[in-house]
Amino acid sequence: MEIRFVKPEEVQQLARNVQTAFPSKTPQALLDNMPGELVHPDEGRYLGCFDEDGTMIGSLLMMDFEMNVRGKMMKMGAPAYVSTSFLHKKEHVAKNLLRVQMGVFAQTGTAVGALHPFNPAFYHKMGYGYCTEQVMYSPRPQYIRSYGDKSGLAYAKPEDEEEILEFYRQYARKTHGATIHSFMDKHRIFDEPYVVVCRRNGKITGYLTFDFVEVDHYTDMYHDLAVREIICEDMETMKQFLTFFASQTDQIERVRIYTYEEYFHMLFTNPDSGENRAYDGAIQETGRKIMGFMFRILDLDDYFRQQNHCDKPVSREFTLELQVEDSFMESNNKKVQLHIKDKEVKLVRGQRADVILKTNIADLSSLVIGAIPLEAFLWTGRMQCSDTAYAQDIQNAIGWSQKPKNYTYF
Q: How far apart are CA 75 and CA 66, in angstroms?
């Protein structure tokens, strides 16, 4: 078995491998771009696994992102289209490919990684921790608050493209969890059928993307309007978008809004999902929580060299020893010492620890990205702390009080 980057002359093998792994989800554009990507990568680099005869038996796409992690832009590596030949299932092909791509990223200065899981348990074993969550709301248009003004809205024009992308990039640079990718950002936004921008005083203050989803009715007049992405600079912009949604009562059954905002249902007069998913017969469902990507520290030392700041000032100066279990990357299976003072975190060695935190790499990754707080890990017994009096200071030092937000699928 050999794992290496795919050569241009192996494009047909690569296409077959991806298509058989994702028979209903392989975009035609991905296949069309493959020959060029193998020569001049824009989307990412294809890594292949080959048997003794040189036949490809697995592949994945290695993608390089910038990611806002706790307010700092970091290099982030993401595998996509992890594919195994139907003839070689259960032979650890995907496992070996993922281990190699993690090592390549870690050895080239990329301290963190992320992926969208087809099976969270499978990737949790490989050290990826739970990260982003969204809520899908689906109110009827008449139950969305209308503010009477949507005069700033217009469909995006081709000449708006770069301005919208720059608006998104500025949003990502100040939003924990958001990513930047020159190829993916453009396609994520403009491959959607409809892009609506809001302009106020000649300046873009927000945009959204949407498409239509058929619903089961006796007439073809009704659809759901699915809002895939909605980013606003301020509440005045959001009010114009809401007024737009509220005006769709004649042809739209429901507006499906995917959002990271926990209290978004306050913008509806009735947040009922309308799917009769009532608990105990009368307590209505208001939204449905869905999972986003998983996050992983690929290089512990490099991560804490870059992430040298606290979320909040700690109440005392102390040395924290992290005893990390990582069965997938031996380089992370070790003890790490951090000296913490005020709002600074410093990687140190050979000091006496004031407190010890035992954890696996997946749960540590969820903690530092702000997906799950330390108190939850201690409550469930997933982490062990030698002195829980330090728990809040540990949370303030290496955790994050804001949950991550990200709209990019990869």
A: 5
**Tens digits of residue pLDDT in 36-85:** 999 999 999 999 999 999 999 999 999 999 999 999 999 999 999 999 98
- Give SS3 for 41: coil
Residue with tokens 């978004």: 264
Largest CA distance in the chain: 72
Torsion over CA: 297, 299, 301, 304 (sign): negative
Please give the order of strands across the beta sheet that includes 355-360: 344-348, 335-341, 318-325, 355-360, 384-385
What's residue 217's pLDDT? 63
Give the end-to-end CA distance of the chain in Å, rounded to a whole number: 27
Task: Give the CA dihedral 341, 345, 350, 355, nearest 10 degrees.
Answer: 70
User: 349 is written with which tokens?
Assistant: 């060695």
- Whole-number Å distance between alpha carbons of 43 and 32: 12
pLDDT beneath 50: ranges in the chain? none
Find tokens 């078995």 and name the residue: 1
Domains annotated for the chain, with CATH where assigned, are 2-110 (3.40.630.30), 135-291 (3.40.630.30), 299-398 (3.30.1050.10)
Each residue's pLDDT tens digit, 392-410: 999 999 999 999 999 998 8
Rounded CA separation 56/39 (Å): 18
